[in-house]
Amino acid sequence: MGKPNDLVQGTLDLLILKTLSPEAMHGWAIAKRIQQVSGEVLQVQQGSLYPALHRLEQQGWIKAKWAESETGRQAKFYVLTAAGRGQLEKETANWNRLSAAIELIMTEA
Amino acid sequence: MRWLAQLRMRIQMLFQRGKAGARLDEELRFHLEQQIAENIAAGMSAEEARFAALRAFGNPALLREQARASWSWTWLELLWRDVCYGVRTLARTPGFTAIAILVMALGIGANVALFTIVRSVLLKPLPFQDPERLVRLYEQSADDSFPYNDSAAGVFAEWKRLSHGFIDLAICGYGGYNLSGSGEQLPEAVRAATFSWNFLPTLGVRPALGRNFTASDDQPSANPTVLLSWGLWKRRFGGNPSIVNQTILLNAKPYTVVGVMPAWFAFPQPTVQLWTPIYYKEPANEMKAIDSHDFRVIGRLKPGVTENQAVSELTLITRRLHDQNLDDPFVSKGANIRPLLDSLVGHMKTPLYVLLAATGCLLLIACLNVANLLVARAAARRKEQAIRTALGGSRLRLLRQHLMESLLLSAAGGAIGLLLAGAALQWLVSTRQDMARSESIAVDGVVVVFTVGLIVLCAAFAGLISSLSAKSDQVLSSLQESSRAHSAGHARARLRAVLLTLEVGLTVVLLISAGLLLKSYDKLRSVDLGCLTQNVLKMDFTLPEARYSQPAQRANFFDTLLARVRNLPGVQAAGLVHPVVPGDGYGGDSGFTIPEHPAPPQGKLLYAMHRWADRGYFAAIGIPILRGHTLDGTQQPGHASEVVISEAFARQNFPGEDPIGKHLRTLGQRPFEIVGVAGDTRYTAGEAIQPMMYFALDAVDDLTGATLVVRSGRDVTQFALPIQRIVAQLDRDLPVSNILTMDQVVGRNTLDASFDATLLVVFAGLSLLLAAVGLFGVLSYIVAQRTSEIGIRIALGAQREQVLRKVLLDGLRPALLGLAFGLVASVGAVRLIQSMLYGTQPLDPAVFAAVSATLLLVAALACIVPAWRASRLDPMQALRTE
Predict the structure, then answer these.
(1) Structural domains counted in chain A
(2) Percent residues over pLDDT 90 in chain B
(3) N or C terminus: fewer CB in 10 A for chain A?
(4) A60: in domain
């Protein structure tokens, strides 16, 4: 089996933003959620996840706060900023256009 | 609002990196714990769960690095870390660091100093208004032998009256005054210049205090006025601004100070201390003469007028003057123009650029040497590098660190070099005030930028060369090799040998140039001036016209002075001469005709250098009288009618006849009878002998100054004070100046040559030292690397002489190759300095041979210690070293 987790960089950003859109989450939970929702197809490696999270934070799309996790331990929770929400919409639209185009080619050609 | 969040983030990342780092660790640890918890929930044992989680997690250090890489300011952090690391590693080897920094400091310092001089003197525009429109005007003599001759005031007046290409033309002359002391101050002889009133406006300069001369100041009948230099005003008048409109005594005459020039103003030379109006100072007939080339003319070109247009216009005017005065062969036929800056510093171009090239070589050698040292270090740290590569250090990262080290070295060297350059320049400016524009030499922003550029360049050069050899991708071989390194350093040793060859080659070029200049200087110093130079003292004084207006008064002063000086016990002879002693400059010439000969063809110039002397001068300075006798001193003042000519004069003008009894008629004067022929003298060491004629002191109407020459059997300087006392007794307002032995006169006039030669010898010596250090270092390193190999050879029965010879050859090979390369390069390079050589061929075999011998000797000395050490290795110990 190949490496299904080798995500295009922009795509991982999109997935993170989307995953964070309903509620604040810590890194582990984000990785878990992506894995579960994708039906175990997409496995986000820590080596990609944390740099991506930090990059998004530096860019102001998400922000972090420390809070108690479900196990009672201090964890770093990420939450979407207003700007991040706008960015998510833009990237979603982008993604839809792109995947529709690919879909079209795959079925028609 | 997003930019606000980003800004906050950035500030946070800049100032709270430590905290952010701790949080990142915490975040990652949380992730790991979650994973472990999940694994346990899935039914693994605690230990199993932990290992599985760690496996999934990967390399935590790398992960941390990757996350950090997304932070802002990471480059700054990495840079800072590289600096810290670099400083730490350099501090661990203080000896190496000190040597490398010193080498860089010398190289960079020398370059910065020379660059500052070249920029300030040659490149920086003159500090005048629109300096590129300013030109110096020259006459071109009728026989074309002097294309850039000084101008006659009468010609200047015609140029000014008739030309249209200039906004204005102005004229300047030289002079000197006795500045009388007030109160307890001593009198002083000061160098001065004369300006026409429009000179400063033409330059676009105003006095710092007071006003410029007016047109009414600048005429013979005006009240005497003077402008002071800033330095003289500070030194002599305490910088008191009330000096303006006060009077000072110059040549015992009261002059009104109209102004003080700005501190930076040093025209035409830095040594000039005051200025007076030219039409007031010079006699009216001198200012009308069209054949007396004593003045410098400057002009400001009108916008749109080219130099060529101006030259053709001036030539036309001069040509017309010439054609109207065909009976006077000394009226010029043409004119020339040169930018004012060129006329002031043009003669310094070649020497300065040669010195700059030499410092460039020195810097290159310094860089090669530091690169060499770094290569050795890299070799010694190979294992460390390999381990770091194995642990995930990227090649780029290692290269960056390498460059950082050489940057630190060259930055420290550059900082020290800048200080050295500053000190050297200060010394130079204070000792070489005779150098044109020396007052403008200063370290400024451009020089600092140049220094920073040099630092970066040197760092890149030294760093890249040395890291070329660091093959960090061969991790495994390095790690294996370093356990028993025999052939380990071969590639590196070869690189170092190439660097050394280059170094030696450049050193040879520098040594040969320095040797040639030194030989040329030596030739210059040992030139026979035609007179005695040992135990002869000279001093100048000027008689103020106000108090010595009658020839009898002057004759009386001279006679009394000579009589008293000759009476001093120990003085063997004394005499007087005007204007200069041999070796002290041209001193001027006059045209003449010989009544006994047919008139020379039209346009043929008969002229010779002139001197005025008393009858004892020839004996005092040791110029032999070859035929006839010396000047007769018994004639009435003002009626002298004798002349003594030099041998060259006789040869040129009286070939095959006896000059004694013939006559010379100098232009506009009575005939003088030739009574003697004196030996030839040179007016400057290094210039050809010129015909010369000596008149009696009182033959000249307006003689105001003279040079006293005193000879003694032993240390002649002891008479300086007694003679000054005699002068003070005769006239307490009379300053004595330029008290020098003849040796000092020659030294002063060959100062440029000695200066260039000395500097080049210093640079060459430094590079020889650097090359020797390089050779020594390389060979020591090779020996250290091959200790066990040599040990095995000796243990297996190799003769110690064999080992010695082999190691010695290893070291001498780059030296020999470098020597060959250097000799070839020198053949080209010496053409550059050909114009600076006197009596020395650029391909002087003696210099080439001496340099080769010196270099081989030094190279052998540098190699012999490591080679000897290698041959004395104890095989047991050598084999145990690793």
Answers:
(1) 1
(2) 12
(3) N
(4) yes
The helix or strand, by DSSP H or E, that contains position B250, with its residue range, turns out to be: strand B247-250
The tokens of B301 are what? 């070109």
**CATH code assigned at A77:** 1.10.10.10
DSSP one-letter code for B614:
-
**Closest C-alpha among B369, B437, B406, B744 to residue B583:** B744
ipTM here:
0.83
Angle between helices B490-525 and B751-785 (to 10 degrees): 160
**Alpha carbon distances (Å) from B2 to A11, A88, B248:** 22, 14, 76
User: Whole-model pTM above 0.80?
Assistant: no
- Count Cα atoms within 13 angstroms, Cβ side, for B68: 22
Q: Is the pLDDT of residue B260 over 90?
A: yes
Amino acid at the residue B653: N
Q: Tell me how far CA of residue B206 lies from CA of B211, B393, B739, in angstroms.
A: 7, 66, 35
The pLDDT, as a whole number, for residue B412 is 92
Please report whether residue A23 resides in a domain. Answer: yes
- Selected residue of A25, A30, A36, A50 to mutate for chain B interface (largest B Cβ count, 10 A): A50
Q: Identify whether A2 is part of a domain.
A: no
Half-sphere exposure of A46 (CA within 13 A, CB side): 25
pLDDT in tens, B145-188: 788 888 988 899 989 999 888 999 999 998 888 888 776 677 78
Q: Which of chain B's residues have a Cβ under 8 Å away from the Cβ of A52?
A: 70
Interface of A with B in 30-69 (CB under 8 A): 45-47, 50-55, 57-60, 63, 66, 69
Confidence of residue B635 (pLDDT cuts 50, 70, 90): low
* Strands B607-613, B692-696: pairing kind: parallel
Helix (H) or strand (E) holding B644: strand B642-646
What pLDDT, on a 0 to 100 scale, did the predictor assign at position B695?
86
